[in-house]
Each structure stands twice: as structure tokens, then as C-alpha cells.
Amino acid sequence: MLLDTSLYFKTFFILISELGILFGFTYWVIHSANQAYKNNTSFMGVTFRPAVNMKNQLDLVPSDSQKTAMIFSWLTFFLIASGLAVTIISSMGLNVLVGIAFMTINAISIGIILGFVMLDMDENDGLRAVYIVMMVTVVAALIGTFSGINFANRTLAIILFVGLLFLISFNFARIFKNFARKTTRYWAIFGSCLFVLYLMFDFNMLLKLSERTNDWNTALFMAYSIYLDIINLLLEILDAMGNS
Fold first, then answer.
1. What is the span of the domain harbouring residue 44?
2. pLDDT per residue as tens digits for the range 176-191
3. Using one digit for the tens of pLDDT, what is the confidence trace for 93-149?
């Protein structure tokens, strides 16, 4: 039955399922941290102390732990390996179910890491950022699909790629040098705008592809592309919030 559906249905079926898994695990981490704090126990080797943000909301502060560092190392490995696997499987037309399985591993890994990233800054702001990203994604989807503007063109692809190289270069430089919070925030805003454009580009690309192809491998490739746009947009918004 699913094999007879449109490319849009296939793509959104994969995308929404994987985002549900990702944000489900993010919420699970934050909820488990709250339970650990209330019960005075640890979660994944981490204990939490209470703090209050500027809106007088509880903001849990995680402690450092060698055990957690090891867990995060493995999660990062699974994240990178599964991401490469999804890209290879979807682009080479291999078994789509295996590709979806790897994407699920990717979503679980990112979801857990994202939960701790939010706890490290302010989980209240983190959850607000998720709502913002979801609304922006819907708007970008509508513009990319129904505006009639040709976003998926070679010129914009080159501009976006150059912008991405600049953003990667700045984030790489942050490893070795401390930049002013204002500078970091401006780059995060630039990154947010960049990935909004990537969303419109990819939704417009999906529209073009739907006119000439309809297979699960293309759907997996496009779902993963949009999925990465959403995650990167969220990370840039979190970065901007953390440096405001």
C-alpha cells in the first residue's frame, strides 16, 4: 500500500517519524533529568543541581562525569557512522529499510545529545527553540513549495555551499580561540538564516523531484537532507540563545 503513495508522502512519512523519535528522546533525557533531581539520584552518570533562570523557572545544571563523556563519545561515533550510512544507502539505491534503520540510530543519538545540550544551557529555552524551529520549518516548506520561486537552482546552491564553508570554518576556529559572545551570536544568526534558506532549497528540490521520480530511496535522501537542515537550524538557534 505504501509503495503506491507519492514522493511527498514517502518523504514526510520518514521525516516526521524520525523527528518524532529524535525529539522524543530529547524530551526523555530532560524528563529523566528532572526525575533524577527530584529523587536525588543520577541519570546516565550525571547528577543535577537546581538553578533558576531569569524567568524564575527551574533550570537544572548537570555535573561533569567521565562515564558520561564516554557515553557521549560512543553516541558521537554512532551519529557520524549512521549518518554516512544513510547518505551512502540513499544515494546508491541500496536497501531502504536498512537506510531507515540507520537514520533511526542517528535520531536516537542526536536526541540524547540534544537533551544534554539543552540541559547544559537552559532546557526551558531549548524547548522554546524546538517550537520556533518547527514553525519556521512549516513556513519554509510552504514558501519552498507554493511560492513559485525557483530556490533549487545552481547559483543559490553555490552561495549556500560557500556560506556553509564559512560557518564551518568559524566553528572550527572556536575550538582554538575564544570569541566574544556578541561575535558568536552574530555567526549563529547567520547560520540560522543559512539553514532556513537550505530548508526552502530542499523543499523546492523535493517539489521538482516529485514531478519526475517516486521511489523510497529518493524519499530517504530528501527526508535526511531536510532532517539535517532542521537539526542544524535548531543548533544555531540554541547557540544564538546561549550567547545572547
1. 2-242
2. 888 888 889 999 999 9
3. 788 999 999 999 999 999 999 988 888 777 778 888 999 999 999 999 999 999 999
C-alpha cell at 5: 503513495
Long-range contacts of 95-104 (CB under 8 A, 24+ apart): 96/216, 96/217, 96/220, 99/217, 99/220, 100/14, 100/18, 100/220, 103/14, 103/18, 103/220, 103/223, 103/224, 103/227, 104/18, 104/21
Q: What is the pLDDT of residue 4?
A: 63
How far is 16 from 54, CA to CA, in rounded Å? 33
In angstroms, the Cα distances linking 127 to 34, 61, 75, 115, 153 are: 14, 16, 21, 10, 34
**Separation CA 36–CA 101 (nearest Å):** 30
Sequence-separated (6 or more) residues with CB below 8 Å from residue 165: none
Q: What is the reported pLDDT for 37?
A: 84
Half-sphere exposure of 129 (CA within 13 A, CB side): 27
Task: Please state the domain count of the chain.
Answer: 1
Which candidate, 204, 207, 225, 191, places its Cα nearest to that of 153? 204
pLDDT at 1 over 50: no
C-alpha cell at 156: 543559490
∠ CA(113), CA(224), CA(233), 5° rounding?
55
What does each C-alpha distance from 42 to 23, 62, 67, 115 come to in angstroms?
A: 22, 10, 12, 15
